[in-house]
Design brief:
Number of strands: 22
Number of helices: 4
Helix content: 10-25%
Strand order of the largest sheet: 17-21-18-20-19-22
CATH class of one domain: Mainly Beta
CATH superfamily of one domain: RlpA-like domain
Low-confidence stretches: 1-14, 190-204, 206-212
Distance between the termini: 77 Å
Mean pLDDT: 78
Largest sheet: 6 strands, mixed, barrel
Strand content: 25-35%
Shape: globular
Radius of gyration: 46 Å
Length: 324
């Protein structure tokens, strides 16, 4: 009886421990770039559920996962339901060659990995992989090639120096004098008329009274000239307001996300931002398409490939200026 009780208690403890382990919280797997079969296998192994959005999600014809929420590495509970953005694009079909001229080495690897194409390099730094920029490419950007086709890149260990733009001669604008007011002279003439009444003279004991009429005299008055000036209307142009550049300064971190995209907590999705490393002066560009939680002095979360263009991933945090 004692041995049977011990065996029963051991089995009970083992089953409780297994249930507790199966119901433990787990990390969200990285599903971006995986096929439909791979997504089902990974989520089933982690005991997680998911819903899909995007082309082919309604009838189950989607082929690849292009986005997910929450992001990879997030701690979620057992049987958590994630949201996956999918696409019906054929992973093995023909594709267009991306534009690689001017891209850095890390950026070139990221772009070619995303479109699933190979490349070989020629030029300074191609043998020891110390090149830093792509100068030319063959075939040209936009050309349709087969899946896993090989692109030839001409690279260099120095960035090309752009010639300074030729300054145009300064054009001097002569200011016209203000027009004088238009004046219209007006002449006014006033005439004065003087009338003399008749005069009567009476002498006693003499002849009858004699009346002598006095003639009427008209004296012209002096001419008065009045000048009427019309006011001159002047139009004042208001100065144009300069566009204000907005920016934030703080820490930038990294996480595994879509290349060329980043996450902020203050910008609307789809905003194109410029990120400058204030320590080295290096500049990158990305599109704010994800939302992060506001923590301390953090202003942006970059994907691993773009963060590597500013500093090594082991550094973890860089002090940057984000402008848009």
């Amino acid at each position: 009886m004692m041995i049977g009780a011990l065996v029963a208690s051991a089995v009970l403890v083992t089953s409780v421990t297994a249930d507790a382990a199966s119901h433990a919280r787990r990390h969200m797997p990285d599903l971006i770039g995986r096929s439909r079969a791979q997504v089902y296998a990974v989520m089933r192994a982690d005991a997680l559920y998911f819903v899909t959005t995007g082309p082919g999600s309604a009838n189950g014809t989607w082929r690849e996962a292009v986005g997910q929420s929450p992001k990879p590495g997030t701690v979620v509970p057992w049987h958590f339901q994630a949201r996956i953005r999918v696409s019906t694009a054929n992973r093995h079909g023909a594709r267009r060659v991306p534009r690689l001229v001017g891209l850095s080495r890390a950026r070139t690897f990221a772009v070619m990995n995303r479109v699933q194409l190979f490349f070989n390099t020629r030029g300074p730094g191609s043998s020891d992989r110390k090149w830093i920029v792509v100068l030319r490419q063959s075939p040209a950007a936009g050309t349709r090639v087969k899946w896993h086709a090989t692109i030839t890149l001409i690279v260099s260990t120095r960035r090309p120096q752009h010639k300074k733009p030729v300054q145009k001669p300064v054009t001097t604008t002569t200011l016209k004098k203000k027009p004088k007011p238009t004046c219209t002279p007006t002449t006014t003439t006033v005439a004065t008329t003087t009338t003399s009444e008749p005069t009567s003279t009476t002498v006693p004991g003499a002849a009858p009274t004699t009346t002598t009429p006095t003639p009427t005299t008209t004296t012209p008055a002096p001419t008065t000239t009045t000048t009427i000036c019309k006011p001159v209307t002047t139009t004042t142009l208001k100065p144009t307001k300069k566009k204000r550049v907005r920016y934030r300064i703080g820490d930038a971190t990294w996480y595994r996300y879509i290349a060329g995209h980043c996450a902020t907590w203050y910008l609307p999705r789809g905003t194109r931002v410029t990120i400058r490393d204030l320590a080295t002066g290096r500049v990158i560009h990305c599109i704010a398409s994800d939302r992060e939680g506001a923590h301390g002095n953090r202003v942006v979360d970059l994907d691993t490939q773009q963060f590597a263009e500013l500093a090594p991933l082991s550094k973890g945090v860089v002090f940057v200026k984000v402008s848009w």
